Amino acid sequence: MSQAGPLTVLCVATYEKGQDFLKECKRQGCRVLLLTTEGLRDADWPRDAIDETFYISRDIDRESLLKGVSHAARTHRIDRIVALDDFDVEMAALLREHLRVPGMGETTARYFRDKLAERMKARNFGILVPDFVHTVNDGQIKAFADQTPLPWILKPRSQAAAIGMKKIERADDLWPALEDLGDRRSFYVLERFIPGDVFHVDAIVWDKAVVFQSMHQYGQPPFQVAHGGGIFTTTSVPKHDPAWAALERINRDVLTTFGLVRGVTHTEFIRSAADGRFLFLETSARVGGAFIVNLVEAESGLNLWREWARLEIAGEEGTYRVPQVADRYAGLILTLAKQERPDLAGYTDPEIVFRVTKPNHAGLIVASPDESRVRALLEQYSARFQQDFYAFVPAPDRPPA
Question: What are phi and psi of 266, to 5 degrees?
Answer without folding.
Answer: -130, 115
